[in-house]
Amino acid sequence: MADNNSKAAQYWSTNLRLILGSLVVWAFVSYGCGILFRPLLSGISVGGADLGFWFAQQGAILSFIGIIFFYAWRMNKLDKEMGLEE
Amino acid sequence: MSQFAINLIFVGASFALYFGIAIWARAGSTKEFYVAGGGVHPVANGMATAADWMSAASFISMAGLLSAGYVNSSFLMGWTGGYVLLAMLLAPYLRKFGKFTVPDFIGDRFYSKGARLVAVICLIVASITYVIGQMAGAGVAFARFLEVSNTAGIWIAAGVVFFYAVFGGMKGITYTQVAQYVVLIVAYTIPAVFISFQLTGNPLPMFGMFGEYTADGAANAVPLLEKLDLVVRDLGFRDYTADVDNKLNMVLFTLSLMIGTAGLPHVIIRFFTVPKVADARWSAGWALIFIALLYLTAPAVASMARLNLIKTVYPNGTEQQSLAYAERPSWIQTWEETGLITFEDKNNDGRIQMYNDKNEDFTATAQARGWNGSELNVNNDILVLANPEIAQLPSWVIGLIAAGGIAAALSTAAGLLLAISSAVSHDLIKTMINPNITEKGELTAARVSMAVAILVATWLGLNPPGFAAQTVALAFGIAGASIFPALMMGIFSKRVNNKGAVAGMVAGLAATLLYIFTFLGWFFIPGTNMLANTPDNWILGISPLSFGAIGAMINFAVAFIVSNATEEPPVEIQELVESVRYPKGAGAAVDH
């Protein structure tokens, strides 16, 4: 039981780390590149506009898809490694 | 064949399909009614979630909003970014919890009837305000394409939703929504592909938008967005790609839309419908892929339609004479009949001028050209519906757009009505009023409450309170400031107790409502607002539409402070929290 508990704690802390990392990327591509850092990225042009504009209109959405699939793949793998899957 | 006959064939064929599916997938038990027996494949569920989520607002209105330029990118990021939060912070754990509704989780986790009741009320208010817009949107689409009155349009919409939602339940809705997704995405992309090809030579709109504008010949090719910036500047508008000054407000508005998205109950209940916890994670990803197909096309539609519209009014370039009113194309005439395009010849020159007459720096230029105010008023909502006509596409494309717009409105209405009916029959009647109700009785109660909800929504759709845009802010504010934080704390904290959760929800909700009503009027009654709704009056420049994010922060803060000042939750509640964190032993959604 003690073993199970420590395994569960390890599973949960791995999950939290993964969530935190994913949220950093999530915020960076949308609030960062798409809004706050847009003036800093104005030098990089993308098809008639700048990189910040591209992130706000398309880049953030594409990144969101990447984040979800990465998280799902990583967590479903972790479930199996820890023997906690259904 | 007339356009009317073509519209009738497309809309009629799509309905035949939805009804066929509803009959094939009739729900037999309460479980099937609420969660489709927990047996829907993640890809199918993702598609249904996408149809559920993409409403009349996404299909009809969003491109119009985006055509204002960069400033409205918040809608794109906000309405998609919420799925990241759902996938990581809510969906898998709520699936593991394994009951039917959002108030179920809040009531059980915070061992409190009060918390459950607050959740039920928030859910019903958020869903009803949201459903009004869908009924009204479907009504407009029916009225325009089937050439009936607006009232008849809304009644047709109500009848259709009633049939497949009341008889089919979640199972019927899920498979109907898969079909509706296919109809709406095909309808949205086909005109966009044609237009992108016409303007840029690239058939993929999302690349065409950042490609070269080649419609004036290859020798004059310039990037499409540069061309657009140029022509809008010539008419005194802000550059399409211009940056915004109030970044704080833009960040908070985007955040409000994200947490509002993650907290909307009709989206959350979708994730109770997949077989396993692992599938709930995949399902959120698939949903976002299907949503992104439309959301990556929308900004292209917005920029290209804006350019096309200006080119129509200024056929020889913005420096030259504008279009003579007598020579206007037939689509302008059609939409003039609906009142969504209006023209007033202010300087009596028989030509249409369209420019930014609110820009004081531009007044001198306008006077020099003999202009006396902008004369053409185009309602943004027609951008998508009129798109095929503006680009002179064949009439079957217009029939397709009609079917697509109606599919978008009906699929969302059905999802919302299901969320409302389960809250009433399951959370209110079975859990709080009469726990001894039989399964059959509960199913009847669910169907009756759905029928009542449809009637209420239809009545409100027929007598719209005249504040459609504000009510959306209200729905997102409520979902973001109350439901999202409560769910998240219920999963990620063992320490938050019943008192903390209730205090947090009430505080977050009250602060948000107070801020919205201060600027938009008490219960949106015109003239009762205490401050004029202008950026100068907003606290720190935060608009009422952006306040949901602040409300959520207040909710979190109050819940933690109150919980830490009071006793720990009981041991069995802490065990419940522990159990939702690990997928093992989830099983099917539990009957109870």
Automatic annotation (TrEMBL), chain A:
Sodium symporter small subunit domain sequence ranges: 9-84
Keywords: Membrane, Transmembrane, Transmembrane helix
Keyword Cytoplasm: no
Transmembrane segments: 20-41, 53-73
Keyword flag Membrane: yes
InterPro entries assigned to the protein according to its UniProt record, in alphabetical order: Na_symporter_ssu (IPR019886)
Stored Pfam families: DUF4212
Listed name of the protein: DUF4212 domain-containing protein
From TrEMBL, chain B:
Keywords: Cell membrane, Ion transport, Membrane, Sodium, Sodium transport, Symport, Transmembrane, Transmembrane helix, Transport
PROSITE patterns hit by this protein: NA_SOLUT_SYMP_2, NA_SOLUT_SYMP_3
Keyword field contains Ribosomal protein: no
Transmembrane portions of the chain: 6-25, 76-94, 114-132, 152-169, 181-199, 250-272, 284-305, 396-424, 445-462, 468-489, 501-525, 537-562
InterPro entries with a match to the protein in the record: Na/solute_symporter, Na/solute_symporter_CS, Na/solute_symporter_VC_2705, Sodium:Solute_Symporter
Keyword set includes Membrane: yes
Annotated family: Belongs to the sodium:solute symporter (SSF) (TC 2.A.21) family.
NCBIfam families: Na_symport_lg
Protein's name in the database: Cation acetate symporter
Annotated organism of origin: Marinobacterium weihaiense
